[in-house]
Amino acid sequence: MPTDSKMTPELLLIGSSPFNSAQQFISTAAQNLGPHLPRIPDGETSERSNFIAWQHSRLPIELIQPRWGGQPSLRTSGKAYTLANINPVGYDHEALASYATFRALKASGVVPPATRFQVCLPTPLGVVRGFIVTEFCSTVERLYEERLVDAIQRIQERIPASELSIQFDLPFEMAMLEVDRGRLQDPDSYWEAYFSPVKREILERIARLVRCIKPGVELGFHLCYGNFAHAHFVEPASTDMLVEMANEIVKAVSPIHQVKYVHMPVPKDRDDEEYFEPLRGLAIGDAQLFLGLIHSNDEAGTRRRIEAASSTCPVMFGLATECGLGRATVQDVDSVFEIAAAVLKG
To answer: How far is it, in rounded angstroms, from Cα 32 to Cα 338?
Structure first.
């Protein structure tokens, strides 16, 4: 790597992939980039490749938005919803099954011995805003949070803290902030917050959620701008809001649990210093910064984005893609791995 680069030799895989199995994704990642991966996710294969879409069946059909097949005609006036109305979320089942694969690959020497198993999760806010009609969001959010926390606790009971990394993905949180500030038009109220003040309420929810993370477990945040046909829900104008939220999250969460890393996306066409200039105000303490500088089939552009980030960022940063790769092709993932290996070599 160039001598003036601020890039570290570490790479972050955001989570999802188009691979058919955890075995295929973990082994491919480890064999191609193992020394550069402090943590490896399971690739969120099969029904999990499209982020929260698989959570649809966990929620009451009569409370789901009609655009997602909800049936409001089944709603009973005055019904009190309880935990019994929310099915177990299933993240624990999937994580523990994949961890068994991860552990076997580590025992066979495919995965380096110090590598952690990365579990990527949505927030209750994200799942509920994504599916539930607005007037029931607050009620369902509390119940879904209880289910998700239970799943996280089960994961932590079975995976040693020293081998576990938990990442929370925050696309709905970032979208709510963009709507609140007038940058994202939302005529159908898909992204709009159902509470106010928006930023304070988001931070309080994040802080409450991380209270269930045990000491020794790594904690990271993916400040996501979505991936819809390889496009964001709105292109970040710069890293300004990303820096603001990274600083605020670390400030809110650090008294509860150490933040190990924060990830920020970088649009493919942003290889200008202006995009990265707000990074000068980054204040995330000892947390690591990962920037989504790698785009498939674009090694030259990746190198330009690294150069632009290095010229303005005040801290060292690791490499990542801008989002998960669940909607990409296997060939795209191969390209990402090849580009990462090439730029990390120099």
So the answer is: 8
Mean pLDDT of 245-259: 98
SS3 state at 41: strand
- Tell me how far apart the alpha carbons of residues 181 and 112 are, in angstroms, rounded to a whole number: 44
10 Å CB burial of residue 345 (0-12, 13-18, 19+) is exposed
Name every residue whose Cβ is closer than 8 Å to that of residue 131 and which is 6 or more positions away in sequence.
52, 55, 56, 59, 64, 65, 68, 70
Among the ranges given (59-68, 288-297, 318-327), the one the predictor scored with the smallest mean pLDDT: 318-327
| Token code pair at residue 133 | 């009609």
pTM of the full structure? 0.95
HSE, side-chain direction, 13 A CA sphere, residue 110: 17
Specify which residues 39 forms β-bridges with.
116
Residue type, 141: E
